[in-house]
Give the backbone structure.
Amino acid sequence: MRRHRVVFAAVLVACTLALVHGFVTSPTSAALDSYERQASLAPDEREQVVPPRENVTVVAGHGAEGESAALVAFDADGEVLYYNDSHQGYFDVDSTDEGRTTVEYTAERAYESPHCNAKCTVSVVERVNLTTGELTRIHSEIIPQDRGANWHDVDRVGDSELLVGDIHRDGMYVVNTTADLKTWEWSAKTDFPLSGGGEYPADWSHLNDVEALDDGRYMTSLRNQDAVAFVDPETGLEENWTLGSDGEYGVLYEQHNPDYIPEERGGPAVIVADSLNDRLVEYRRENGEWKESWVWSDEEMLWPRDADRLPNGHTLVADTNAHRVVEVDESGEVVWSIDAYSPYDVERLGTGDESAGGPSAEAANLDSRHTGQNLGADETLEIAGFTPRKIINSISFVLPVWMGFGHVAIGVVGGVTAFAWFVVELRASSVAVSLRWPIRFSR
């Protein structure tokens, strides 16, 4: 019996030490701590924490389950310019015309009130000067549903008007922020079958992106329908322009943040973070159809949720579950990378909002690189709406930033070992154990 105890104890000690080592030596955890610490210093006391890059880079961190979410900006020298973690989740970040260091962002946090029949969420649009820290609330709404039904994207369409992507209502609308009045609204439920997508009505479309195009149309991402849709404010959905369709995973699989590239810059084209295919992909419209024109991924990519095409042809990426932001050049090489906890959106100021200043892959002659294996149309293994890829990314999203699947395996070994030791000790005692379900003990 003593020999068994030594073996069990040795395994548990080894597992514990391995987990502690992973936590202590995690470079990502150390980097995130340094961002917050540097932000607490006076600007002239701050040091470089990321590689220098031209212009300011702003990262919106979603955080896992709302924990450790932050909006962080780095200046061209690689120093922390701004840090804010007052909200539980940060999403879309847009540059503004009010100077090179002013942005507007969308964020959310849980909202509790006796007037809420259930948990509520408050979604906000705020404008911040990253240099002075001056903060202005532009618009907000209390949503009668818990987090996940919040706003992920809001686009400015006028001095006093915003285009809002409303996950809770499965649609988008334009609101006059001065009068607090909706002036236009569209619901995906009028044009897409309720039998598809996610669970209805809880999280049916998960409409996670909106973009006002220069030609007057609105583009939106229906994550749970695996589709990017185009809507004319006057005539409604332009069905023949829809990119992707529900369950056609070889085209898009629960995508995020599509950006439109117009004809004058080599389009019409759409660059998308094809999230559950763990890749970036661009489609170009040819002869009335969408054709894949560029794709990129590497061995680390895990659930990307933003890809912006920069004017120089590079692509700036928020790789959520890999906890990193990367910049990819024309040949597909990573030329800049920083650690970021669960990044949702990234913006390089001075390059145009999102991909507004960038060319299409064809115009920039970009090289594709795809080291991953997207699911494709032949994916058949699905249980209760979950595929293996979706399960992996769901687990990754809730893990602490320092923990990978190797650490999970170590934790499982430790847990199984502890349980086995417990059972062995019971069997060796005066208590008889019946290993039926539920476990019963008898003397």
Summary: The helical segments are 2-25, 27-39, 361-364, 388-398, 405-428. The chain has a mean pLDDT of 89.
